[in-house]
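Lay summary. Proteins are chains of building blocks that fold into shapes, and those shapes determine what they do. In this project we predict the shape from the chain. Here is one chain we studied, written as its sequence of building blocks.
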Amino acid sequence: MKIKRVDFSKLRNNEHFQCQTEFKSLLEVSDPGKMKIGSLFYDTYIPLYNVEDEALIKIIKNTFSDQRSDADRLRDQTFRGSVDTINAGLNHFDPEVREAARKLKIVFDRFGNVAQLPLNEETSAVYNLVQEVMENHVSDADKLGLKPWMNKLNADNKAYEALVMGGYEEEAAKSELKVKATRAEVDKVVRQIIERIEALIVIEGEANYIEFVRRLNLIFERYANTLAQRQGIAKAKKEEDKDKNPDIVTGED
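And here is the predicted shape, written in a compact code that computers can read:
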């Protein structure tokens, strides 16, 4: 009687933890002490399982990427609103407002579409744009009603910068590394548990382990199928891309 093997390293984080949760639950109801793996399970496996759980929770709570995207989207919207205000001013009935809009358009054209710049470059460009308008073109900004837009753009830019400087990205990276390292340790202990149970089956016979192995193989079979399906989809996609682009060099013989 053999226990099915699964390449746990290829599972996604949530899949890996769910698989371990099912493995843990099955062992708990099967009585690790009776199965003669009590120490390995309670003293080694459980602490590592808890570390993986905590690290995953930190990743889920750390929404830096979403926060950064939202903050960048907000300042982009404010920038585009400022551009729209200038374009509308070019058609204003008051010639003084039209002239103010013309001058400010020259300034904005010089900076270009800052919303399309790489994020860090955009932060610097927005800062310089606001400084230029508010220090050297404040009269025109007053006439056009652009000052509130510049104040809001400045505030949005500072909010984005503060978010980046808060170190959320670094913390997220640390959590990812911790999960990766812990997963490797968990997998190592799972292999030890499996190997010990298989050795005990050889020594003592199947009677005390047959139901556990049957249920565990059903669990592992499900995750193995998930990996196989994913590999099949990836292979099919690769072949499809190759058919569509036959001139692309794949590096395969």
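What the prediction tells us: The chain has two domains: 8-61+179-242, 64-165.
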